[in-house]
Amino acid sequence: MPQTDDRRVLxxxxxGYCAGVDRAVLAVEKALDxxxxxxxxxxxxxHNVHVVRTLEARGAIFVDETDEVxxxxxxxxxxxxxxxxxxxxxxDRALRTIDxxxxxxxxxxxxxxxxxxxxxxxxxxxxxxxxxxxxxxGEAPDRIRLVDGPEDAATVQVRDPxxxxxxxxxxxxxxxTMRTVTALRERFPALIDPPSDxxxxxTSNRQQAIKQIAPDCELVLVVGSANSSNSLRxxxxxxEVGAAAAYLVDGAADIDEAWLSGxxxxxxxxxxxxxxxxxxxxxxxxxxxxxxxxxEVTVTEEHLAFALPQELRRELRTAPSS
Length: 322
What we know:
Elements: E1 8-13, H1 19-35, E2 39-42, H2 49-58, E3 60-63, E4 74-77, H3 84-92, E5 96-99, H4 103-117, E6 121-125, H5 131-137, E7 144-147, H6 150-153, E8 164-168, H7 174-187, H8 201-213, E9 219-223, H9 229-240, E10 246-249, E11 265-270, H10 276-287, E12 293-298, H11 310-318
Parallel strand pairs: 1-11, 1-12, 2-3, 2-4, 4-5, 6-7, 6-8, 9-10, 9-11
Helix pairs in contact: 4-5, 8-9
């Protein structure tokens, strides 16, 4: 084990919630405050175990599908978005809905509809089975082809190679996405880029921050849950740029003290769905083992904020004051 004086923690900024996650979590909290429990939530509101358990303790009930929600009840759609079919299913069951889809995901849905209406085939870069991908595919199922990495680029088929556009899941690795785009463009030289970057600003900011610190670290800890795509990508990015080891942990309790053997510098970052208090607990855990915070590396400050879903804003505006 290195001498105590040699140990340090490099903390990658930004950390804490991104604007889309903050909006979604706040929507469930406000719904619980206004309507009282239970408030049903289709899928995990965001991919973080701590957040889900905290909301469950307040009376949120998480379900996989709308048919698990009692007819006429209130349901919140998660930040990852849903397809038009899900909206229709909710209407058929007379469910009251609050759509907490991240506005950046909504933008991708809009782009999918617009390009489909213009006659384009859409190559959607992302991971099969992810909730965000399922929602986007549902916007134009006859026009969208899923491309799950550069390998899929070699086999995907389109109707007209001259009318092809790519879109992407918002939580991917920027570098991985561009490798897939490069492979697609080799097959389809006329491939059109989306009108704006689809990858979430918070995802790309965190990836840039971890690139700054990981080459100097023997160990990188990424605070985030195993079903969080953007958190998993941070582990991959840390290893790609030179970290000797990198692990995903939900919190301090998941850290194996054996990982610290021979480690002088620990890098620490978190996914976009992770509460700040979980990062603080990991910092305290490391400090208790002789690793003081040495430096915070900031790539950019995040000041973006999104308004609450319109259904909730409208209800709160018309509610009588207490």
